[in-house]
Amino acid sequence: ATASVDAHRLFGAIAHKITAAPSLLRDFSSQQLATTASAFATASVVAPALFVALADEVSDRQRRNRRAFTAPQLASLASAFATCGADAPPLFEAVDAALAPYSALRRGFLLTTRELVETAWAFACADWRRDPSVFVALAAAVQQSAAFDAMRPEDDERFTLALLHIRLTWPEDERVPATLRLADAFPLSVARHDASSRGEPTGFQLDVANALNRLGWTHVLNHVTEERIRLDMARPSTKRAFEVDGPSHFVRDVAAQQYVLNATTRLKSRLLRRLGWAVVRVPFFEWSRLRTDAARDAYIRSKASRSSPASGRRRPPSSTMRDPT
C-alpha cells in the first residue's frame, strides 16, 4: 500500500483469505489489526466483509481489555474504517468507549493534532449521533493545539466537515459549547485556504461547465458556501449544484468490482443535503465515455431533469457506482 502499487487483486486475495477464516485475526497483534485496516485505506480498496471481521475482532478485544489498543491505534482504525466507508457501528462504539471519559483526550495528551482531526472526521463520516461528547473533546483538543492555525488544507477540510456535522446534529444541545457553533471554531488557515480552494478549475470541470452553459444552466464556478464547503458549479440562489467526481473521489470495492464514493465525498454530500442543497454528481468513468458535445449535453440534460424539484422527491445519490470497464 505504501508503494502506491495498483494491486487490487492482491488486496482482494488477502480479504478473501481472512473473511473465509476470521479466526486468523485472533493471531494478529493490535498493531497488526490497525495496520491491516490502514493498508486497505491507503490503497483506496474496500472489502466490506473484511472490515466486518476486523470490527468484530476489535470490539471483542476492547470488551475483554479496555487497554487492548492505544489511542493512536484506535484513531488509525477509525480513520481507516471511515476512509473505506465501512458500516461498522460496533467499531466506533468501541473507540468511543476506549477514549472516554475524554479528560486526557481533551488536554491533547493522547493524540497528535492530525490524529485528533482524523478521528473527529471519522466519527462524522460514520454519522455518529448518539452523543456529542467525543466530538466536543476532540474539537477542544484540536483548538488548543499549537498546530491549530497551521493545519494542511486536507485537515482543514476534514475538521470543517466534522464541525458542521456537530452543528447540524446537535444545534441546541447544551453539551456542545457555543464556541463550536461560531466562525471562531474554524482554524485561521481555513480563511487562507478558502481563497486557494477557488483555484483554477480542472479540464473535467470545465467540460461539464461548458455543457451546462450550452444548456443555459448559468452557474458559479468553485462556489464556497457560508459553511465553507466548495462546490464545483453552483446556483446559490436555488441551492442546486453539479459536482465532478474524478478518481480521487472514489475507492475500489474489490468484491463487487465497482467504484464507491470515498468518505469525504459521502460526508460532504450528506451535509449538503441537510443544508437543503440538491447536488448532481458526474463521475469520471461515465463522462469519459461521452465523445461528442451532443452526447455530453444529453447526459447533463438527463442528470439535471432527474434532480429538478419538479421531478418529485430527490433521492440521495448512490454511494456505489458500477465500473463500466
What this model shows, in words?
With 325 residues, the chain is α/β, with parallel strands linked by helices. Helix content is 51%, strand content 11%. It contains 14 helices and eight strands. The strands form two sheets. The protein has a four-stranded mixed beta sheet. A hairpin with a 5-residue loop joins strand 2 (220-224) and strand 3.
Structure summary:
The protein is of the alpha/beta class.
SSE layout:
Layout: H1 8-20, H2 30-42, E1 45-46, H3 48-64, H4 71-83, H5 89-99, H6 103-106, H7 113-125, H8 133-144, H9 153-169, H10 188-196, H11 203-214, E2 220-224, E3 230-235, E4 240-245, E5 250-253, E6 258-261, H12 263-274, E7 278-283, H13 284-287, H14 293-307, E8 320-322
Parallel strand pairs: 1-5, 4-7
Antiparallel strand pairs: 2-3, 3-4, 5-6, 6-8
Helix pairs in contact: 2-4, 3-5, 4-5, 4-7, 7-8, 7-9, 7-12, 9-12, 11-14
Q: H/E order of the elements?
A: HHEHHHHHHHHHEEEEEHEHHE
Oligomeric status: single chain
Mean pLDDT over all positions: 86
Q: Using the alpha-carbon principal axes, give the shape.
A: globular
Largest sheet, in brief, is:
4 strands, mixed
Strand residues, percent: 5-15%
How large is the radius of gyration? 21 Å
Runs with pLDDT <50, length 5+? 310-319, 321-325
Q: Portion of residues in helices? A: 40-55%
How many DSSP E strands? 8
Tally of contiguous helical segments:
14
Strand order of the largest sheet: 1-5-6-8
Structural class: alpha/beta
The separation of the N and C termini measures: 23 Å
